[in-house]
Amino acid sequence: MRDSIDQIYESAAILVNQIILIILANTIMIKSLSIFASLLILFCFSVSCNGQDEKVNNGEVKTYYPDGSICNVSNYVNGKINGHSLSYFRNGKIQDDCTFKNGDFVGMQTWYFPNGQLNHEEYYDNNGKQQGVFKIWYSSGQLRQTGSTINGLIIGRSIQYYENGNIESIYIYNNSGKKDSTWVYYSDDKNIIRREVYKEDSLIRTLK
């Protein structure tokens, strides 16, 4: 039974990974990702952990799975999550390792797959905006995507990989976080599928 539940969580983690890639590819503000991740944590509580009072104003809150194993440990100040927060899969491995300030992400945030492999990681400044390099992995441990953000926007080049390690696509964003220059898409055997030329988020032309 536990194995089947863990498989559900692994599938959910993969789904989250796919949604993240869609968010990144469409240059939605990375802030949306933090909101989504927070909702995912609440979802974990609602479907898997024993019910506890969610209106905690101050102090440490621990939630548990029905079998008594730990699900999440978080701290609240004035009704908002603050400080270090750890969530766990049913198999005992860490699901996410995050830090909050008044309900917003701050510092390095890390998510994992049920097998212990990294899912993705990203960094947030003291104002809750994503900054610097982000990385996303496959559950196998192979790097899936990497890029850089400034004030919550992807800036510069972002590269996505197939699980065999070959490049799947190369995206380029201007200093305003908009699609720019030539985007290149590859097959998993390294052949170019197509090129797309962008300017200020507008597709100018497609080249085969």
List the helices and strands and how they pair.
Blueprint: H1 2-25, H2 31-48, E1 59-64, E2 70-77, E3 80-81, E4 83-88, E5 94-101, E6 104-105, E7 107-112, E8 118-124, E9 130-137, E10 143-150, E11 153-154, E12 156-161, E13 167-173, E14 181-186, E15 192-199, E16 202-207
Antiparallel strand pairs: 1-2, 2-3, 2-4, 4-5, 5-6, 5-7, 7-8, 8-9, 9-10, 10-11, 10-12, 12-13, 13-14, 14-15, 15-16
What are its keywords?
single chain, 208 residues, alpha+beta, 2 helices, 20% helix, 46% strand, flat
Low-pLDDT segments:
1-6, 27-36, 41-48
Shape: flat
Oligomer: single chain
Spatial gap, N to C terminus = 49 Å
Mean pLDDT: 82
Number of strands: 16
How much helix, percentage-wise, in residues?
10-25%
Percent of sequence in beta strands: over 45%
Number of helices: 2
Structural class, by secondary structure, is: alpha+beta
Q: What sequence of helices (H) and strands (E) makes up the elements?
A: HHEEEEEEEEEEEEEEEE
Gyration radius, in Å: 19 Å
Word description of this protein:
- With 208 residues, the chain is α+β, with helices and mostly antiparallel strands.
- It has a domain at 2-115.
- It is built from 2 helices and 16 strands.
- The chain has helices spanning 2-25, 31-48, and strands at 59-64, 70-77, 80-81, 83-88, 94-101, 104-105, 107-112, 118-124, 130-137, 143-150, 153-154, 156-161, 167-173, 181-186, 192-199, 202-207.
- It has a 16-stranded antiparallel beta sheet that branches.
- β2 (70-77) and β3 form a beta hairpin.
- The longest helix is centred in the N-terminal third of the chain and has 24 residues, at 2-25.
- It is flat, with a radius of gyration of 19 Å.
- Residues 1-6, 27-36 and 41-48 have low confidence and may be disordered.
